[in-house]
């Protein structure tokens, strides 16, 4: 096994010990690191969408469900 592969395996092993929220943040950061170019229009559109969704949550207009219920719905399809 090469040194790089061994290092990668060890890194993955350590990352999997992190709490779910930390693993999700790490995964997001790794995915973002793959983007070599940034589409400014897309970034701006996502920022606007995030603001819109947060406002809907804050105002109570958005209906939320627990993750366990959402997961059941997703896996059912």
Verbal overview:
With 77 residues, the protein is mainly alpha-helical. It folds into 2 domains: 1-36; 37-77. The protein has helices at 3-15, 20-34, 40-59, 67-76. It is flat and about 55 Å long. The termini are far apart.
Q: Treating each run of at least 4 consecutive H or I residues as one helix, how many helices?
A: 4
Q: Any idea what the shape is?
A: flat
Helix content range: over 70%
Spatial separation of the terminal alpha carbons: 40 Å
- List the helices and strands in order: HHHH
β content, as a range? under 5%
What is the structural class?
A: mainly alpha
- Average pLDDT confidence is 92
Care to give the gist of this entry?
By secondary structure, this protein is an all-alpha fold. The chain has helices spanning 3-15, 20-34, 40-59, 67-76.
Task: Describe the structure using short key phrases.
mainly alpha, flat, 77 residues
Which helices and strands appear, and what pairs or packs with what?
Blueprint: H1 3-15, H2 20-34, H3 40-59, H4 67-76
